[in-house]
Design goal:
Layout (H helix, E strand, L loop, with lengths): L1 E2 L4 H10 L7 E2 L4 H5 L7 E5 L5 E6 L4 H12 L1
Parallel strand pairs: 1-2
Antiparallel strand pairs: 3-4
């Protein structure tokens, strides 16, 4: 997860409240998002095990759609 314009304390609370276990990059300047070509928030970028971008989705996703996207990229 790349957190743009978010505070570290807010991100920690979000992750702990939802019991999420994923890496988070704090990107207050938007530099990392620019490297990925992100133009809107939220944007989901899934990177496969080989380090390639497997999927890009602009906008929100349901839990089921997110799970399917992650499972598909893991193959």
């Amino acid at each position: 997860m790349i957190a743009v314009n978010d505070q570290e304390t807010d991100m920690r609370a979000l992750l702990q409240g939802g019991n999420y276990q994923l890496p988070v990059i704090l990107d207050p300047s938007g530099a990392v998002g620019s490297e990925y070509g992100l133009r809107a928030v939220p944007t989901l970028v899934i990177v496969d095990p080989q380090g390639r971008i497997a999927k890009v989705h602009v906008g929100g996703l349901s839990a089921a759609d997110l799970s399917a996207a992650v499972d598909g990229a893991a193959r």
